[in-house]
Recover the amino acids of this structure.
């Protein structure tokens, strides 16, 4: 089991986050973390993107050509937006998925998994003759880090989204797996006035639909891919320049960085015993969208998402360890100084 290292930090009475190496100055622009309100109705979140099947093997990392004993093996649904929606559903949201699958047995397994997690797949189109996507994932038994071998979907054609489904949502989640799908859905969400959360690495190839995104959450490797080195602020600025009003970068064991019209924020990772990092980013996106639907601020959403993703990492599988809302709040009350006591 690997232990995730967290950046040491503390908060003053105004809930500003400071770096312990320089406590006289805020490490970031401060923002008050309000006490979240509780809604009587569950949030309604729609997702548009990939749903697939994951074959997960936990074993030692060995040289190519050698043989390793498998310590653990499981098969479960995966995919960026699909797993994000599973996180939303576990937290108590009503969820619907817009996606595509083939007419094969893999699709049947994927849909069964979504049904078990109470994610509506009524609007997942089936395409006879098409091939559904799947992955073989190796998880290192010592570190929990994963390597993915993916077979892409084939023979699937997007037929367009029902605008009424999108208009009824409080938040729309998207990924970049199916370009025509994400272009259609982000455009429709913008026209309907529904905020979108995107899981993608910004590039010139997806700039045309990123301009319709409200919140873009990029992975750490965007810093390297974009030529920003370790400068998260420059990366956040680059995301804003493409259109999103809120930018977030997940930094793994180093936490997260975020920016919106009210300021810049940094948050630490939560220290947990890591069993498997598969799906951690997907779960972060889903939990962030759940917080948005609850009306929480950017730093509040990001800290909540970080906690939910950390808990997920304590068990093998992209979905196995996703907590319920009560479990996530119990974790935050024990590990965060930022006022989660009155949320229930």
């Amino acid at each position: 089991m690997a232990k995730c290292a967290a950046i040491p930090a503390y908060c003053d009475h105004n809930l500003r986050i400071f770096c312990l190496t320089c406590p006289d100055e805020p490490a970031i622009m401060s923002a008050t973390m309000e006490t979240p309100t509780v809604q009587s109705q569950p949030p309604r979140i729609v997702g548009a993107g990939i749903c697939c099947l994951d074959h997960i093997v936990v074993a030692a990392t060995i040289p190519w050509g050698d043989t390793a004993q498998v310590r653990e093996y499981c098969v479960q649904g995966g995919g960026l937006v699909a797993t994000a929606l599973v996180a939303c559903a576990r937290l108590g949201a009503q969820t619907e998925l817009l996606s595509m699958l083939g007419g094969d047995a893999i699709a049947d397994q994927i849909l069964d998994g979504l049904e078990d997690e109470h994610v509506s797949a009524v609007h997942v189109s089936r395409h006879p003759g098409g091939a559904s996507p799947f992955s073989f994932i190796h998880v290192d038994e010592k570190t929990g880090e994963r390597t993915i071998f993916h077979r892409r979907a084939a023979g699937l054609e997007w037929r367009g989204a029902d605008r009424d489904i999108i208009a009824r949502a409080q938040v729309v989640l998207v990924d970049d797996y199916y370009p025509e799908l994400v272009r259609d859905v982000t455009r429709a969400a913008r026209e309907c006035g529904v905020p979108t959360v995107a899981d993608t690495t910004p590039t010139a190839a997806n700039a045309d639909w990123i301009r319709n995104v409200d919140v873009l959450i990029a992975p750490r490797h965007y810093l390297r891919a974009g030529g920003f080195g370790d400068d998260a602020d420059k990366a956040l600025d680059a995301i804003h320049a493409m259109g999103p009003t809120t930018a977030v970068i997940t930094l793994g064991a180093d936490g997260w960085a975020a920016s919106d019209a009210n300021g810049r924020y940094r948050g630490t990772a939560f220290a947990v015993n890591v069993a498997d990092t598969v799906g951690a980013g997907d779960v972060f996106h889903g939990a962030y969208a759940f917080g948005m639907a609850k009306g929480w601020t950017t730093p509040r959403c990001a800290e909540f998402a970080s906690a939910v993703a950390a808990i997920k990492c304590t068990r093998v599988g992209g979905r196995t360890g996703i907590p319920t809302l009560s479990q996530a709040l119990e974790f935050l009350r024990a590990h965060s100084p930022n006022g989660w006591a009155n949320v229930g």
Observations:
- The chain is about 30% helix and 25% strand.
- Residues 298-312 form the longest helix (15 residues).
